[in-house]
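TL;DR need C-alpha cells for one chain.
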Amino acid sequence: MRWENLSDEPRPGTVDAALFGADAVTTRTFDTPEFRGITFHEVRARSIVNRVPGASRMPFEWTVNPYRGCTHACVYCFARKTHSYLDLDTGLGFDSQIVVKVNAAELLRRRLASPRWHGEHIAMGTNVDCYQRAEGRYRLMPGIIEALRDHGNPFSILTKGTLILRDLDLLRQAAAVTDVGISVSVGFTDEELWRTVEPGTPAPERRLDAVRTLSEHGIGCGVLMAPVIPFLGDHPDQLRATVRAVAASGATSVTPLVLHLRPGAREWFMAWLGRHHPHLVRRYERLYAEGAYAPKWYQRRITRHVHELAEEFGIGPTRAAAARRIRVPEAAGPTAESTVGPTQLTLL
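>> reply
TL;DR here they are.
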C-alpha cells in the first residue's frame, strides 16, 4: 500500500509530501454487523486542511476530509479515483477499506491557531462523507466542529448521513459565532433506485427527516439534489416527487446536480450499469462521449425543470459558494433566499 505518497488533491507532474508515514498506520477490523467486511486504516495524518486545486470547479478553496473511502458505497462516487493513489482498489476497496485520520481535530485546531491562517471558509463532506458509518465509532466530527466553533471559523457540511443530528447542539453553538452552511444530499426518492446505487446510505426519506429535524431546531438546511441520474432518475414524475418531498421537509433550498463520471468512478458505474441496465450502456456512452460531464443542454434542461418545480412548491436554489448563516431560534429573523439562475455545481 503506497502510504508515503498520499495526497488528497494530487497535481499532475508533482510529487506531494506524504501526509503520514507507514509507521503511523494501524489496521483494524470489527466483528460487528455494521462493520463486517470493513477494514479501517487508522493514521496519524500530517495535515488536514487541504487547498482545492485552482483548476477545480469546486465553489470553495479549503476542505477538511477526516476519512478516505466510504461505506456509503455509492456506485457513482467521483472520489473513487483517490483510492488508487494508495494502491487500493477503486471499486469494492473504496467501499470497504476506510482510512481514518484519527488526529484530524488536533491538526485542525493547530492550523486554525496559526498566524498564517486567515479564517477562510472550510468545506466538509466534499470528497467522502464525514458522517458515513465509521463516524459513529470514531467520533471525529465533534472535535472538528468544536475547533471551528472556538476559532469562529466559517464552515459548511454536505452529507447523506443522518448521524449529523448527533452533533446538533455543537452546530447551534458554532452558528452563534460564525457562518455555518448545512446541505443534505438527496438526488431522488425512488426506493428501488436508492437500494441499487446507494446501498450503504440512509434511505432518502430518513435524510429528509434529518432536514426536517435540523429546521425544527432553527438550523436552515438546503438539499443538494444530487445526482440526477440520466434515464434512471430524471423522468418528470421522479423529479416532481423528489422536489415535493424536499419542500415538505422544510428545506430552505434545492439545487440540482446531474451525474458526472470521472475516471475511476466511470469504470465502476458503467460496469454496474452493464449488469443492471445493459440496454442503457450505449445511451450513456453517447451522452458522456465528450468527457465526465453530461452535455450542457441536458444539464440546463434538468436544472430549469427542477427550479420550476422548486418555485411551484415554494423553495428556491442556493447561491453557489455561499455559506448560509444558521441561526438558533432566539436569534431568528427574516432572511431572503438568493434567486440567481440555474447553476451546475460539482460537489458529488
